[in-house]
Amino acid sequence: MEKIMRKFAILTDTGSDLPEAYYAEHEVGKIWLGFTMDGVTYDGTETPLPDTKEFYGALRGGAMPKTFQVTPEQAEKHIEPYAAAGRDVLVVAFSSGLSGTYLSYLVAARELMARYPVQIAVVDSLCASYGQGLLVDYIVKKADAGADLAETVAYAEDLKRHICHIFTVEDLYHLKRGGRVTGATAFVGTVLNIKPILHVDDEGHLIPIGKVMGRKKSVSALVERMNATQTLGPDDPIYISHGDCEEDVEYLIKLLRRDYGDRPIFVNMIGSVIGAHSGAGTLAVFYRGSHR
Question: What pTM was computed for the model?
Answer without folding.
Answer: 0.94
